[in-house]
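If I may wish for something, please sit down with the protein I am sending here and say whether tokens and residues agree:
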Amino acid sequence: MDPFIDLTAPMACDPYQLQTMAAITAKTLTAGRFNVAAAAQRTQSAAKTIGATAVIPLYGWLHPRGNIRAASVLLNRYLAFDDVKTIVIEIDSLGGSAYGVQELADEVYRARSKKRVVAIANSVAVSGAYWIGSQAGEFYVTPSGEVGGIGIYKLHENIGKALEQEGVKMTLVSAGEYKTEGNPFEPLTKEGKRFLQSSVDVVYRRFVDSVARGRGKPAKSVTQGMGRGRIVGAEDAVKLGMADGVKSFAQLLDGRSTIGQTPASRRAMLALMH
């Protein structure tokens, strides 16, 4: 699981993003490995402090062993630093795997009781990325930004006929009644589809409950009034209660441009490299 993007996992991402990742995965798997460590390294290297404010980046495809883990480590380290008074989570992500998202979202929610925690969509926070950002004490969107995509799905790809046209027929020999259920070489059965739907519904309920908690809204307002799975622009996000305001990243940081690292943050970066 660690080195690969599992396209059969519950997805908390924009469906168009999945098309791209599927193509990337198909190529990288032939090379033997998909390196998720790059996402973690990007998160670590882009983290910074600006005065008493720590900025944690959350960019690109969400992966539990990549940027999600790195963001979690940074969040907990900055919580321990007395000289960091505000933690900003800068999000630019269309989501990704749902694995690990709830755990990081819960960490963000707990953190807001200890310090000021702010999230900003700069420029997009979609699906799993919005799930995480919605748990901050404040959530903002850049003027050209977008948020939303509250929903979960799973993918079933039936490649059986395509293989047959190439002269390949797959035969699965298994033990366990449902062991091969949902395999990509046969059509998905009605029972199999019901099972996939039930698993999607479980994750979706957790998503909705988290957003309701983070935004201080009833669950019904999330399912019926926050885009219904659609992505919305900044102004609409504020009107729907999905965000607290529209700000540029510079405005959020009060226009300060001098970036420096405190001794504590430097120690954190050194620790993350080992």
Remarks:
- The first strand starts at residue 11 and ends at 13.
- Residues 28-34, 256-274 have pLDDT under 50 and may be disordered.
